[in-house]
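Deliverable D4.2, example record:
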Amino acid sequence: MEEQRTGRRPYGDPAWAPPEPEQEEGLPPSARVYGRPAPPSRVAVPAWARRAALLAVAVVAGTALVAGLVAVITSAVRSPEAPSAVADTTAGVTYPLPKGWTRGAIPPVTGFTSVAALPDTALVMARPGGAADSVAVLGPRQAAIGLADLYGRLLLRGDTMEVVDDRWMSVGAYTGHSRALRATYTDVVNRPSYLRVTLLTKDDKSVIVVGLAQPDDPGRRAEIDAVVNGLR
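Output generated by the structure prediction step:
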């Protein structure tokens, strides 16, 4: 009777089995703290980009997400010298350090290979982007949109997310696309945050540059832009 009425076997039936648990494979650590992120937009993202983004570090619940990331890098051991640029041999790029910025020892997000920071305020990270053929499938703009959406959800987790810039870029011998988001929060801990994601390609390689700032400020935006525009 139970099976006829509900379409399910009763618990005592030997053939009964509990429903399969929700799979957590591939979820970032932050998803286990804050819950599964909302599905991203319909823009497809190459698999290599998804794997790297899903390794983003988790910040303890109740703290400011971007401030936590900046604190991680600015509290790391710094090189005793004060270089004027960061040379990322793995990503194959060099980018300048604005006045007051320092080269970080360890990027706070897995997959990134270099980082620069303005203590307690902003940071810029770079990483190889994978084969340029992967980007060519979507085109640089669509790939950049997907990356910005993904990193925005994983790193900012704002209550509201606004696109504040979206443009094609030519930097040195690289060309690509850059997209910037502004996140705001309803709590009293997080101040508005700024995220710029830039995807650049040259020949058969690409590079991803992510800039974060909290609080969002025109001066910090300009410094992040200076780092990206000075990439070689």
